[in-house]
TrEMBL record:
UniProt source species: Ruegeria arenilitoris
EC number(s) stated in the UniProt entry for this protein: 1.6.5.-, 1.7.1.17
HAMAP family reported for this sequence: Azoreductase_type1
Molecular function as annotated in GO: electron transfer activity; FMN binding; oxidoreductase activity, acting on NAD(P)H as acceptor; oxidoreductase activity, acting on NAD(P)H, quinone or similar compound as acceptor
Spans through the membrane: none
Positions with a binding annotation for FMN: S11
Cofactor detail note: Binds 1 FMN per subunit.
Flavoprotein keyword on record: yes
UniProt gene name: azoR
Record-given protein name: FMN dependent NADH:quinone oxidoreductase
Catalytic activity: N,N-dimethyl-1,4-phenylenediamine + anthranilate + 2 NAD(+) = 2-(4-dimethylaminophenyl)diazenylbenzoate + 2 NADH + 2 H(+); 2 a quinone + NADH + H(+) = 2 a 1,4-benzosemiquinone + NAD(+)
Domain Flavodoxin-like fold, residue spans: 3-191
Class in the EC hierarchy, top level: oxidoreductase
Length: 193
């Protein structure tokens, strides 16, 4: 059993979503002492100039307004820090990740909290964690040259230190939804807890 799972769903669809179904199956399969839930269908704010200024102001020099601007980001980072495993339901929209997932990335990729810079380049600070991506698409084959979602998600997770990334794919569902879902459900059953 996994101690703490951060369960993120990035689908805009609250019902009838293949990635929501798959991510829930993965969470159930792994078992957890604690589940932290983050549904990105509830919109996250986009970065603004004021947010960026607050983020790059040293923590001990931030005023109350800047601390308020960063409060949600701090909460999202804390969720990642507490998790042993991150399960992400990630549909492919227009060959890439949903805007909601990109907004989440922008709020959690923070220098000094989830990564740091060194003379050897950036170093992720969330090492020792596992991520499982439950990916679905209508016509895009996962891992193909037109799949800009899977590689991007792996890269960003690695950037913040999460290198152990598994993918469960229900891809090309527009062609054969039953086979895509069946293959994905078999992949869930084969995941090591």
């Amino acid at each position: 059993m996994t101690k703490t799972i951060l369960h993120i769903d990035a689908s805009a669809r609250r019902t009838g979503s293949a990635t929501r179904d798959l991510s829930a199956r993965i969470v159930q399969h792994l078992g957890a002492g604690r589940i932290i839930r983050r549904d990105l269908a509830t919109p996250l704010p986009l970065l603004t100039e004021d947010w960026i200024t607050a983020n790059f102001t040293p923590a001990d020099q931030r005023d109350a307004t800047q601390r308020d601007l960063l409060a949600l980001s701090d909460e999202l980072v804390k969720e990642l820090q507490q998790a042993d495993t991150v399960v992400i339901g990630l549909p492919i929209y227009n060959f890439s990740v949903p805007a909601a997932f990109k907004a989440w990335i922008d709020l959690v990729a923070r220098a000094g909290l989830t990564f740091s810079y060194s003379e050897n380049g950036p170093k992720g600070l969330l090492e020792g964690k596992r991520a499982i991506l439950a990916i679905a698409s209508g016509g895009t084959a996962v891992g193909s040259e037109i799949d800009f979602a899977t590689g991007y998600a792996r890269h960003v997770l690695g950037f913040i230190g999460i290198h152990d990334v598994d993918v469960v794919a229900a891809d090309r569902m527009a062609l054969d939804p039953e086979a895509a879902l069946s293959n994905a459900q078999k992949a869930v059953a084969e995941l090591a807890a």
